[in-house]
Predict the structure of Outer membrane protein.
Amino acid sequence: MKKIAIAATAALFAIPAAANAQAYVQAQTGLDSVSVDGGSSEGLTYGVAAGYDIQARDALFFGIQASVSDSTTKDCVRDVAVTDDKLCVRSGRDLAAVARIGTNVGETTKLYLLGGYTNARVRVTYNDGTNKDSAGTNLDGYRIGAGFEHDFGGNLFGKVEYNYSNYEHGFSRHYALAGFGVKF
């Protein structure tokens, strides 16, 4: 009987929490600025994200979000070892899992902070005119950021967000994102 009472009490707390929960998916794009030991290159980032927010109090919410994105950011230099050779570093896909905490500003707007884990792919190619070599590696890091989200009506929303990511081996990244999505 004691176990049934505990389960019923837990269910009473879980049902309102689930009723206040909101799942979403979004498409996102923006500026990607990748830095390596002081030098930086800019490009375009694009991808998708999905998440789940839970309304904790009238103005406070918590959430989780996972995202996958790619980037056009690439930097090349010539004449590295021999005349007319080419060395390029390209940032590739980026995977992230973050937690969000924020506040509702009115009925249609949210302000939030985020933080979590990110993993980026970097590919290096070298072409000396005769041979072309390529190698890639994954870089682990952390991400922090802040954002503004606005509901347009129905289930549609838009957001703007800034993210900073710091990776292994001196790599870091700044994202300025705009997103458009739907809530379920």
Remarks:
- The longest strand covers residues 132-153.
